[in-house]
């Protein structure tokens, strides 16, 4: 198959044959349970939760816990993302409970209600870069510096970004899921306010509030902004790009190959680099933006 | 119900519920105010104007 996918041979294939070849290659990487994501999601959440008693009981100092909590926030989204795409186990499968457990648990650090994230993320996939229907279209910026400015503005109480997921749920007839978001955010605020007025405000700021903000900024940069930049084009092979991160694949959380995820969302994150390498000639043939990767 | 949720998630509620004790405890930690009423007043002096700006202008950092 590797030989068939050679650029010189692709010209001889019809559009249908090219589609079949592409799907055959992608199919090899699907249907595998990503156990690393399961351990990652549950373990990350447990470490984060453990930081609170460890700091409050003076077992570890706050200055040491803050970077760990920030790392927890950065690492919190991707296992939930695997679950949103039913990669761990689809509906009706024996491990379905585990898929849902990972989805719910890993989102706690970022106060991400799992069902809301899944519903809105599916809309992002279906309408990527659509100025009306892509609920992540507000994450934009003409450059890295502009992204950080927009990110700051998007966090303000009067920002249009605040209601993006709510509007998306309403548009798709899933408004009932907003209750998940309200309950989760109420619990978050109750914990924050309760601990803050009990004398632990600095601890809560450095264990949850600031790590959550830093984590969200990091995640939106690598997961939402960089792979869709400049965000002007729509279409299966044009709405997402590959890009070369100067900090490498681990720091960019595998998002250099995010184009593979948008083409085949059921491929686990850990297998997207291998799938990319095998699909690269076809993607190049189709005129995808591969960013020198 | 909608009004109650709006109040709970408002910038002013965040300022009163979190930023006030945070500013208060930061003032004590930085030895800018003594604990008790001085720290409470110092915390309020930071948090309440910030909350009002965020509530009325729709931005914590003035720019929108």
Task: Describe the fold and architecture.
The complex is a heterodimer of chains A (293) and B (64). By secondary structure, chain A is an all-alpha fold. Chain A has two domains: 1-30 and 235-293, no CATH class; 34-232, no CATH class. Chain A has helices at residues 7-10, 15-27, 35-56, 62-75, 77-84, 96-106, 114-126, 144-154, 164-171, 178-225, 248-251, 258-263, 272-285. In chain A, helix 3 (35-56) packs antiparallel against helix 4 (62-75), helix 4 crosses helix 10 and helix 5 crosses helix 7. The longest helix of chain A is centred in the C-terminal third of the chain and has 48 residues, at 178-225. Chain A starts with 6 loop residues before the first helix and ends in an 8-residue tail after the last helix. In chain A, 37% of the residues are buried. With 64 residues, chain B is mainly α. Chain B has one domain (2-57). Chain B is elongated. Classes of the chains: A mainly alpha (293), B mainly alpha (64). At the A-B interface, helix 10 of A face helix 2 and helix 3 of B.
Provide a short characterization of the protein structure:
The complex is a heterodimer of chains A (293) and B (64). With 293 residues, chain A is an all-alpha fold.
Question: What structural keywords apply?
Answer:
heterodimer; A: 293 residues; mainly alpha; 0% strand; globular; B: 64 residues; elongated
């Amino acid at each position: 198959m590797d030989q068939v996918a050679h650029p010189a041979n692709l010209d001889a294939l019809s559009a249908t044959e090219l589609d079949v070849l592409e799907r055959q290659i992608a199919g090899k990487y699907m249907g595998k349970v990503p156990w690393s994501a399961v351990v990652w999601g549950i373990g990350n959440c447990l470490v984060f939760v453990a930081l609170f008693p460890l700091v409050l009981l003076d077992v570890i100092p706050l200055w040491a816990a803050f970077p760990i909590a920030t790392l927890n926030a950065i690492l919190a989204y991707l296992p939930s993302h695997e679950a949103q795409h039913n990669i761990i186990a689809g509906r009706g499968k024996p491990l379905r409970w585990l898929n849902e457990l990972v989805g719910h648990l890993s989102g706690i650090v970022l106060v991400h209600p799992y069902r809301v994230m899944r519903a809105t993320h599916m809309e992002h996939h279906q309408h990527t870069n659509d100025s009306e229907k892509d609920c992540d279209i507000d994450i934009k910026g003409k450059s890295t510096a502009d992204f950080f400015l927009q990110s700051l503005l998007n966090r303000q109480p009067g920002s249009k970004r605040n209601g993006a997921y709510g509007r998306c749920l309403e548009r798709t007839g899933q408004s009932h899921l907003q209750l998940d978001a309200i309950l989760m955010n109420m619990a978050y605020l109750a914990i924050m306010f309760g601990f803050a007025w009990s004398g632990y405000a600095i601890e809560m700021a450095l264990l949850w509030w600031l790590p959550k903000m830093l984590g969200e900024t990091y995640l939106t940069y690598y997961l939402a902004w960089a792979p869709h930049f400049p965000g002007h084009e729509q279409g299966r092979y044009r709405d997402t790009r590959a890009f070369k991160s100067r900090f490498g694949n681990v720091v960019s959380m595998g998002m250099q190959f995010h184009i593979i995820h948008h083409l085949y969302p059921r491929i686990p994150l850990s297998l997207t680099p291998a799938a990319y390498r095998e699909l690269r000639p076809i993607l190049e043939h189709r005129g995808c933006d591969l960013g020198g990767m | 119900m909608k009004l109650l949720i709006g109040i709970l998630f408002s910038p002013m509620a965040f300022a009163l519920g979190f930023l006030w004790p945070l500013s208060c405890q930061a003032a004590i930690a930085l030895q800018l105010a003594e604990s008790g009423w001085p720290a409470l007043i110092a915390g309020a002096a930071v948090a309440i104007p910030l909350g009002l700006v965020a509530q009325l202008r729709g931005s914590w950092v003035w720019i929108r």
